[in-house]
Structure formats: structure tokens, C-alpha cells
Hints:
Structural class of chain A: mainly alpha
Number of strands of chain B: 10
CATH class of the largest domain in chain B: Alpha Beta
Number of helices of chain A: 14
Order of helices and strands of chain B: EEEHEEHEHHHHHEHEHEEHHH
CATH architecture of the largest domain in chain B: 3-Layer(aba) Sandwich
Number of strands of chain A: 4
Low-confidence stretches of chain B: none
Oligomer: heterodimer
Low-confidence stretches of chain A: 1-5
Radius of gyration of chain A: 21 Å
Strand content of chain B: 15-25%
Largest sheet of chain A: 2 strands, antiparallel
Radius of gyration of chain B: 19 Å
Order of helices and strands of chain A: HHHHHHEEEHHHHEHHHH
CATH superfamily of the largest domain in chain B: P-loop containing nucleotide triphosphate hydrolases
Distance between the termini of chain A: 26 Å
Strand order of the largest sheet of chain A: 1-4
Helix content of chain B: 25-40%
Shape of chain B: globular
Mean pLDDT of chain B: 90
Amino acid sequence: MISSSLIPCGQYKTSYGADTTIFLTPASRNWCVVGVAVALMVPLVASNYVLSILIQIGYYGIAALGLNILVGSTGQISLGHAAFFGFGAFASAWLNNKFGIPVLLAIPLAGVMTTLLGLLFGIPAGRLKGLYLAIATFASQFILEDFFSRANWFTGGSSGAQANPINVLGYEISGDRGFFYVVLFFLVIMYLLGTNLLRTRDGRAFVAVRDHYLSAEVMGINLTKYRILSFGISSFYAGIGGALYGHYLGYVSAEGFTILLSIQFLGMIIIGGMGSVMGTLMGTAFMVLLPEATEGTVSTIKHFTGDIPALTSALAYLKEAAIGLAIVLFLIFEPDGLVHRWRLIKSYWKLYPFSY
Amino acid sequence: MSESVSPVLEVRDVSLGFGGVRALTEVGFEVRTGELFSIIGPNGAGKTSMLNCISGRYRPNSGRVLLNGRDVTDLTPNVRATLGLGRTFQNLALFGHMTVLDNIMVGRHHLLGNNALTGALYWLSGARKEELAHRRKVEDIIDFLEIAHIRKAVAGTLPYGLRKRVELARAMAVEPSIILLDEPMAGMNLEEKEDMARYIVDLNEEWGMTVVMIEHDMGVVMDISHRVMVLEFGRKIAEGLPDEVMANERVKVAYLGIDDDEAENGEKVA
Lengths: 356, 270
């Protein structure tokens, strides 16, 4: 949690309650409400293409927030987040197919199942740190990937699992328009829960473990418990995100949850800002939009140059390289992430034109 | 003050070794309720090792540590904190990226009842109410240590003297029955030292906390301590009232390591 000590003028807090709000000022809270209200209107005007991108940002954003609590706040590392994401997708489909549990209920239940799995795979974190932990989570990625391809009863094995669309009171929510609202609902809830978690006892304990584990222990924090708990919570978010992903696509197959996706999740939180809730969403949006933007640029260039085969293949490489380049540039120039840049922009306008 | 009150802390013949190095050899002492007890000794005498044995960072090779009459030798540091043990560190050990307020709130960890789930349900679970009640208590500590102006500052950005004070505040927030201070005045200027000495005395007298302090500044130690213990090469060589310890020949030779007449005038040996 990177907190700013800069409080805008004219903000007088007269109670501790007023001083513990999520948003620093009523204005910023109102803007956030307006933002959600605008998001509610989006399906009325947006095309299916835009909606599908927003839905992607939604379910990846939920999963990435979990990873940010684990990596950004608790200071651990996970290279297996995609596997938990995948487990959530399979679990929700399985609960729905096998037991007939309504999808809307199966999604949180899948989250709980993934939490238990995360607690199990988090046990090494009680002992390991840094690179050693990274390799241990790397192992969980491979174990789960192998499980997905072999456990026919659970995942359907190589043929994958069917994930039914969401059904509310006998009314089937199908298509991007309806699903957008479902994802938005889960996104708002999960982000609120995450924010609350990080400003209360256990959230502070996570950050304490990250910043100075020896003194955290002397303050009464059980290091092993919190290191493992952090994995559990991170997996819960991954499970919810994965379940939404599964029911959105309607079909879950094991190929989608590779180490590459795990690393993309890490990219999202690094670009967004480690330990920041809002940063996670910014980083996710960036990572989802970047390939789309490069794709758009490439097709525009193609449009002007005509179809030259050599150039086309070069541009395809360029597209991939741009993503890697973005991450490297972020690490060098904005290690605190997009959320930090956003703060700088805000304080710039607050102080304009007297920047001192 | 030093009547026959039950000891808050009892250390029985603690020995600690690292490989061939004997850090502590059968050191034993008692700290009584309400006492301000200082441990002094030359560098490498084993003072911080002693504190680490008490707070649970090290497990002694032999001997027992009793806190409020309970044997805590085999307990982890976090359990000892819940039993009423607070401490500060010689080298700053704040949570650098948290605000001062959050740092101090971490100290209240074991006093707060909410968990990850009820914390996430903030408004519905009563977590908010609890946070606010504890915020009130934290503000009392903030007032006492005069750090109200920096409560929203990020701890890692503060100057050294203030960080020391925030660390003290965090240890106080644990509401310990005994608080261990590892060189609370190291690296401070005279003014900051005077402030810190005042806080420690008030902490002891007004807040009723028993204090165990390691400090190199003899002036402060002799002025504010009720009793002093001297360590040298891991052994206890003296224990008693400040005047007695100052007059002790062995302490003079071993600790100050200088002539008697110089020892009388030059009190500061760092």
C-alpha cells in the first residue's frame, strides 16, 4: 500500500470514521460512483467487440487483484496463478454440470474450492522465500496443468469441459451484453472486499510481513499463517476470475492456463502498481488493450502499405515484441506502476501552475 | 519500587552459543513489576542477544525465560507478543511503506479480533467499529509521543529520530506488560535524547509499563534506571542500583576499561 500523505486543501476530518474512508475526498468517491454508473450504460452503446474486451478486463482484473494481494502486499511470488485461474474455471463448470448447482452460486463456490487448493499449495510459502518460492509455485503450475489434462472426471481431460451460461430466475444471460453486467457486479464486489481487507487487521499484517517480517513477528503476527493465508486469498480471486472466464467462453480447455498466462498476470500487477487495488485494474486494462492496440496499429500500417509478405511477418513479430518492450520500459521508468503516474498527474493539476 | 513484587520477567541461567562463540553464559536476572531495568556492557557483551532470547528471536541453548510466571522459552515471538511482550530494535525495523498510523495499528494486531473475511466485509461485520475503537487508543499513543503531525506520513520517508519514536509507539500499541528497548537513543542528538528519556520515564511511570532497556549513554542510564545489570563477554558481572554499579570496581575495569580517576569524570564511553 503506497499511501500518499498529500491531502487536498479544505479537507477537515472531524471524526476517525471520516478519516478511514476508502476515498480521500467525497469528490473522488463520487467520481468512482459516476464511473460505475457510466459502466452500466456502456452495453447500451458499445459494440460486441468493445464489450468482449471490457469483460476480459473484468475477469482478468479480478484474478490479478488476488495476485497483487499475494505479490504486491504480502511480498511473495507466484508463478502458478494461471493454474488457479484455470482450476476455478473447471471447478465452477464441474459444480454446475455434476451437481446442478446454479452457475451464479457455483462461481463463489468455485472460489472457495480454489481457496482450499491455494492454501494447500501455499504451504511451502511458510518456509520458502524469493526465488525458492518462485520455483515451488512453478511446480504447482505444472502439477495443476497435468491434473487438468488427466482428470477426466473433473475437467473432461483433453476434450475440455462444457460451461453453461448463467441463469437468473429462469432467464438465461447469454451474449456479451448480459454477461458484462455479471462481470461488472463481481468486479465491484471483489474490489470492494479487497480494499476493505487491505485496510483492516489482516491486510496490515500482510504488508507488515512484506516490509519487515522479523518485526512483524514481534508484533504478534504469525508469519507462517499469514504467508499461507495470502495464497488462499489470492487463489480465491483467481478462482472467481477463472469461473467467470469459463462461463463467458462456454467451454473450458486445459490449454488456456499456461505459465505464459501466469507471467501475464505478473505483468499486469507490475505495470499497474504493486500493492495497489486501483493499479491492478489499470494494469489489467493496459495488458488487455496493448495487443489490441498493436493489432490495430499493424492493420493500419498494412492498410497503407498494401500486402507485402515480408513486412506482414515483421509486423507480427513487432506486435509480440511490443508487449515485452512495454514491461521492460515500465520496470525502468515507472517501477511504481500506472497508479503512481496517475497520482503524479492528479497532483500536477492540483498544484498547477505553481508546481512547487 | 523494588519491593518484593512478583517478577514480570525472570531469566534463569540462560546460555547461548553460535558455533564456537559463547554469546551468553548462564545469565540470570529478574525484572519486577514497574521497574525500569537497564542492561549495559561493552560492544559484543551479549546485550542484544539477551533481548533476542527474551523476545524469542533466539532460543537459548540452556536456561529458561519466564514471562509473568509462565515459561515462554519454547514459544515463538508472535505468541510472546500476545502474552504481553513488546520490543523495539537497535536498527530500525519499521514497515517502511506503511503510514505511521498503520505501523502503530499493526502493533495492535493481537488485540484486534477481525480476520480476513470479517475485515473484507468491513461495514457488515463490525470491523469498522473495531478499527475506530482501536484508532482511538492509537491516537492516545500518538499524542503521548508527539507524532501527530506525521501520522499520515509514510514511515520510510521519516528522519531517524522520528522513526525511533514511531517504533516506540508501535511497541507501546501492543499494550505489553513489559517493553524491551534496544538502544532507544543511539544516534540521536542531545535534544532528541532528552525527549526520548522523558518518554521512557513517562512510559514507565504514567503508562505503568515495565521497561528493559539497553543503552550506551551512561548519563541517561544512571539517571533514569531503577536497577542496572552489566554484561561482559556474555557473563553477568554486576547487578544493582545505578550507584552501586557505578562504584563496582569490576565494572570500572571491565566496562570502562580506564583508570579510576578518569572513570569518575568521563562518564561517556560509547
